[in-house]
Design a protein that fits this description.
The complex is a heterodimer of chains A (163) and B (569). Chain A is α+β, with helices and mostly antiparallel strands. Chain A is built from 4 helices and 9 strands. Chain B is globular.
């Protein structure tokens, strides 16, 4: 099953490679991994999307907790949470498809960030499923380039990951 | 007063009470060696290869309650040390390794003797540090010792670039350490401990399975109290030997691939299993699915949560310091009016006795013609009263030493269990002998393993370490040969040790005494003579039966009850 694991770690050189190394050494999947400093400059927040059986996910969270630099770990998918991913898509926008592209972007609440004679660059935020459906809706033929950040997540309400 | 980074490094080691530093100099650590030269508190042991420095520090840590410390230079110094670090990591040995690094301004430029030490060691250390500011040396070394020793112990690497060791700052050694992201477990959950006690009291076929954690946490006394209080059978893993006295009637022997029949059968057929500082390793429980065929309640006590429910499902997981958890468990059991059912226990012990008979105990057919390796270990046990420190390498001799040397005390059996590192025995023995200068230290090895770090005979000479090397020389990489015989149609591919040196002459060349023993009748007299030489290292080259195999054996991938007892059955 797909899980979204959030963790706080010391914002130190090599911290990211400890996490990435753990996943490759123990053969765990990584669908995506995002990391950036938090409001507290000494801490980085990481969101890892992974998949595995319950036993594997349990091991993943335990092994992450065991890393000395890791301050706290939460499996967001165990409770209510929000998941967002940012995608930039450059599409062919010519002739009659130019208007169609604009409409589709509006429907998905995307924003057109850059316009050229032949292309639009669209910014879209949402869950993985929403971004996937947008790509499907456009049709792969018209896509020139996509870049996705990978999911970031946060718990709803009182579910807070902190020191 | 300002001090250089190198002086601070050595001063930190003094503050930590480090007696011995095992190392090898080189360009990137010249400042540190210079600081070492100008003091006397920390004694340096110059090995002949960095791998040996780490194994010696490892042996020193295993036979005491201290942190082992090694010092190596950058590049090849560090890469040579990696096998030693990984060995310590797999067996959770507290250790601090200090490595030199190229100057900070040269890092990343493929400088001479540069290697990404932090990157290379990351998967085999508990933690590592690259120091980029001389002001961080003292606090980092303090952290390194704390991390190495606390929680589940392990090796910690501190990488110090050459320019940092030359720069100056004032020295302040922190009195305490606080790492906000690291809180080693203390007491276990009281409710789970009471739940465990209840399960134990109601068990009909209980089994106590104790591993290396008992030795590392110095909880042998607690384990022994628990086993005796309950009257249950107890087995030790390879790493746990000595954690429970082997001469006790409730001890059913080592379990696992080469464990006793009764230990493995009791493990397989028990209804309540308590695992204490053990991790259900593949060499211990064999095939996981086969192990799970028979339902049993499992109580698992360990300091590392990730060891729990890693390979088997656990009913009562207790995370905590073994000593504290066992103390609390004992208190609960003492307070309980309930006792284990006498009739159930009698039936269970009767079953175990039957398995003992079927298994026939650890046995081999002795010979008056050719030396049987088991006979050498039995003689060693007899002559040392079971009281020696025994280090070993890896292979058949290791298993025979584990089986036939009955360890009654913890920290006497020093071997590479997890990583299975050939070449471990002799350097580890150096660390043990330095820690216990008057004790008998026996290195049980083979003609294959000993050649992996034989250069350390020179170190032994330099520091007058009177280690007794017992080489079970069967002219084969015995365990490889055994597997080839069983599973590869007797095709002994590259397992014959051709062109062996004359070990007697080799020992003599290093300034030691060498003995070659060919006949069974000479085993005891030779060993007596060797042990009488209190001040000398004696290398005993026992010419043993090359066809001897280790039994019992649970073949790889098989279940614990699918054991092969011996050839004549």
């Amino acid at each position: 099953m797909r899980h979204i694991i959030s963790l706080l770690m010391e914002n130190e050189a090599g911290a990211l490679s400890r996490v990435a190394g753990l996943f490759s050494a123990r053969g765990y999947n990584i669908e995506s991994l995002t990391v950036a400093p938090t409001e507290e400059a000494t801490l980085s927040r990481m969101t890892i999307v992974t998949s595995g059986s319950d036993a594997v996910i349990e091991q993943i969270t335990k092994q992450l907790n065991k890393l000395i630099d890791v301050v706290s770990v939460m499996d967001l998918s165990e409770g209510d949470h929000i998941e967002r991913e940012l995608m930039l898509v450059k599409v062919r926008a010519e002739g009659e498809s130019r208007e169609e592209m604009k409409r589709l972007a509006d429907i998905f609440r995307g924003r057109i960030l850059d316009v050229s004679d032949h292309t639009y660059t669209i910014e879209l935020t949402g869950s993985r499923v929403k971004l996937d459906s947008f790509i499907e809706a456009i049709g792969r033929d018209l896509i020139l380039e996509t870049v996705r950040t990978g999911a970031s997540g946060i718990g709803r309400g009182n579910r807070i990951l902190s020191l | 007063m300002e001090m250089t980074g190198a002086e601070i490094t050595i001063r930190c080691l003094q503050e930590e009470g480090v007696e011995y530093l095992f190392g090898y100099p080189g360009g990137a650590v010249l400042h540190i060696y210079d600081a070492l030269f100008q003091q006397e508190k920390v004694k340096h042991i110059l090995v002949r290869h960095e791998q040996a420095a780490v194994h010696a520090a490892d042996g020193y840590a295993r036979c005491s309650d201290k942190v082992g410390v090694a010092l190596v230079t950058s590049g090849p110094g560090l890469t040579n040390a990696v096998t030693g670090i990984a060995t310590a990591y797999m067996d959770s040995i507290p250790m601090v390794v200090i490595s030199g690094q190229v100057p900070t301004y040269a890092i990343g430029e493929d400088a001479f003797q540069e290697v990404d030490s932090v990157g290379i060691t990351r998967p085999c250390v508990k933690h590592n540090f690259l120091i980029k500011d001389v002001k961080d040396i003292a606090s980092t070394i303090k952290k390194a010792f704390y991390l190495a020793k606390s929680g589940r112990p392990g090796p910690v690497l501190v990488d110090i670039p050459k320019d940092i060791s030359a720069q100056k700052t004032s020295f302040v050694y922190p009195a305490s350490v606080n790492i906000r992201s690291y809180q080693p477990p203390g007491r276990g959950d009281g409710q789970l401990i009471r739940q465990a006690a209840q399960l134990l009291l109601e068990a009909k076929r209980p089994m106590i399975y104790a591993g290396g954690g008992v030795v590392l946490s110095d909880s042998s006394a607690q384990l022994t109290d628990l086993v005796r209080l309950l009257g249950f059978p107890c087995t030790n893993t390879l790493m746990g030997l000595g954690g429970y006295p082997a001469n006790d009637k409730q001890f059913v022997g080592m379990l696992g691939m080469h464990g006793t029949y009764e230990a493995n059968m009791a493990m397989q057929h028990c209804d309540v299993l308590v695992a204490i500082g053990a991790r259900f390793d593949d060499r211990v429980i064999g095939n996981v699915e086969h192990f799970a065929q028979i339902p049993r309640k499992i109580i698992h006590i360990d300091i590392d949560p990730s060891s729990i429910a890693k390979r088997v499902k656990v009913d009562v997981p207790i995370v905590g310091d073994l000593k504290l958890v066992l103390d609390e468990l004992l208190t609960v059991l003492h307070a309980s009016r309930q006792k284990p059912d006498v009739a159930d226990m009698a039936t269970w012990w009767k079953q175990i006795e039957e398995w003992r008979v079927i298994g026939g105990g650890l046995r081999y057919k002795n010979s008056s013609e050719i030396i049987k390796p088991q006979f050498v270990i039995e003689t060693l046990h007899k002559l040392t009263g079971g009281d020696a420190f025994v280090t070993s390498d890896v292979g058949q001799h290791q298993m025979w030493a584990a089986q036939y040397y009955k360890f009654n005390h913890p920290r006497r059996w020093i071997n590479s269990g997890g990583l299975g590192t050939m070449g471990f025995g002799l350097p580890a023995a150096m660390g043990v002998q330095l820690k216990h200068p008057d004790a008998t230290v026996a290195c049980v090895t083979g003609e294959g393993s000993i050649q992996m770090n034989i250069q350390e005979l020179s170190t032994c000479r330099q520091y007058h370490l009177p280690i007794k090397v017992l080489s079970l020389n069967n002219r084969y990489l015995g365990m490889v040969r055994q597997w080839q015989e069983f599973f590869h149609g007797n095709r002994f591919s590259e397992s014959y040790m051709d062109a062996l040196p004359d070990f007697v002459k080799l020992a003599e060349a290093y300034g030691h005494i060498g003995m070659r023993i060919d006949h069974p009748s000479d085993v005891e007299p030779a060993m007596k003579e060797a042990f009488a030489r209190k001040k000398d290292l004696v290398f005993m080259d026992f010419r043993t039966d090359p066809s001897e195999n280790v039994f019992p054996m649970v073949p790889g991938g098989k279940g614990l009850s699918e054991v092969v007892l011996s050839e004549d059955l």
